[in-house]
């Protein structure tokens, strides 16, 4: 069984996910089914793989495809680290604030039932900060916003995290620093904006249903909805790296899942009211229901860029700021070039200190020899370096699918095996005796 405990909860011998789908199929969003299915097949060679062969000892490494899904804990963890690394080199090297916009808990279920409002929910939060800078100081700040729909207990709690530059760019490219933002004053604006958003997005029948919640949220929050924006202290890069990882983190980290016995799941969380570490015990069905709520709709971007960080303005902004700095000889901003994303090999080497393409036995390099992928649900050889490689890949496919070799295939396999065993020392490096000494490592 897979060592990923979330995979065990969903797909082990108890078949909890299949039972959940059968019971609640009418209420599960199509994209949830799609993402969970991708997660299920992540790392399974039956969904495709590449083979690498050591040029020295001829050891074979089979590398399965990864799903790169938004629900997959394995893929999202690596993506979060890489995004954070690129972020802290790509933004302006100035002080930033980590701003959090929250709403009354009585409105959480309204956004759960009407997820179409979440995009505008993000935009409105950003607009409050952006308009303050533009009206009060005549500058355009840089804002990166991330939507979180989850609380520490996996409850549906939509709120917006923002990375905001403490300062901004004037129209001539001058960078003006400004550290004070009246967040207490902005709380009331935020409350008004959220209540208006709900009212304008719902039809008359829906508004009648949620009106008591809207009235209660207004009455219970006399100072407005809570906005948190602590001043950042210490190294700017460390701040950016931490905030970046926090903004793009998954709903639950695997290390928080403390136990699973086939019926119940126990996970830890930090109680925000008193800061204590606590645990919660849920049935598997309830745990699955809570987790899948936070899978975003298809093509929904949970991270968005605004102001001088918007994709449309970022290059122009950096160019203007750089030119102003040269003229003013005042280097308050270090506008760096965009950092290149690391590939699979570089990420593993950085994390483990070992090159995955260097054989641990003989220290020779692995060579890419072939690839198998799914075409219309059937495993097919996508690329093979030579006929010997193709024969090996076809044999692997039969092993995975359980299909029997035909008489012609058996004869071909015997010939290829004999040829491989007789490779001369000074000839081209082949996969020596693949069929007799095949070793599969994921």
UniProtKB/TrEMBL annotation:
Q: Which InterPro entries match?
A: Transposase_32 (IPR007069), Zn_Tnp (IPR026889)
Q: Which residues form the Transposase zinc-binding domain?
A: 14-103
- In this chain the Transposase IS801/IS1294 domain maps to 142-312
Q: What is this protein called?
A: Transposase
Species annotation: Paenibacillus alba
